[in-house]
Amino acid sequence: MTIVSRNTPVTLVGGSQLSDNDLTIALSLAPTLVAADGGAQTVLAAGLRPVAVIGDMDSISDAAREAFADLLHPVPEQETTDFDKALRHIAAPLVIALGVMGGRLDHELAMLNGLVCRPGQRCVALGAGNVVFLCPPTVHLDLAAGTPVSLFPMGPVQMRSEGLEWPTDGLHFAPSGRIGTSNAARGAVRLRPDGPGMLVILPREELAEVVRALQAPEACETWPARGG
């Protein structure tokens, strides 16, 4: 069931602490605001009003529950995270997720799992120093030479690439084997994984470029949804 449907990007706020200007930066690129459970308190404190609050509602503050009473969309199951609950109920060309990195390590790992488990919904997570997204079948990033580019496999995956300092063609990546962290761009980079298992990690300053790249025509193909 879709709770929020937009033809423009959506900003999703989770319950972890935000870095300075996160909301301002994200909303300039993704003007529709959604809160995931405890993220409603962050939105309330910022003096903003989301279009929906989605989650199991075990972390939302009483003040936020009262202020957004008409916007609550409880998803009571406990099998998935609030990030996953929100992501699977949003239909948009892209989601920028805030407050989902830099808190508890187990929560951050669960968020990364959510990116892989929801390959049909484009999402980029913004943290204090980095952005991370699941690589689509093809993406072209206009990066300056020397920009750090890290690739982290969440399962067995191969990656064809152009424009990286250390080429990846023909390599077999896996979380228990070869990983691709601490690579760098030589200029514009094109990435083509053979399946929905590769996370791309870039400096925070590349958020706008990632948002552009993930909505570009050549990146319009998405991985099949995995249900749920």
UniProtKB/TrEMBL annotation:
Domain of life per record: Bacteria
GO BP terms in the entry: thiamine diphosphate biosynthetic process; thiamine metabolic process
Gene3D superfamilies: Thiamin pyrophosphokinase, catalytic domain
Domain (Thiamin pyrophosphokinase catalytic) ranges: 29-116
GO MF assignments: ATP binding; kinase activity; thiamine binding; thiamine diphosphokinase activity
Membrane-crossing segments per the record: none
SUPFAM superfamilies associated with the record: Thiamin pyrophosphokinase, catalytic domain (SSF63999), Thiamin pyrophosphokinase, substrate-binding domain (SSF63862)
The enzyme's E.C. designation: 2.7.6.2
Chain ranges of the Thiamin pyrophosphokinase thiamin-binding domain: 145-186
Name of protein: Thiamine diphosphokinase
The species this protein was found in: Flavimaricola marinus
Class of enzymatic activity (EC top level): transferase
Pfam family, one: TPK_catalytic
Keywords, sorted A to Z: ATP-binding, Kinase, Nucleotide-binding, Transferase
Keyword Transmembrane tagged: no
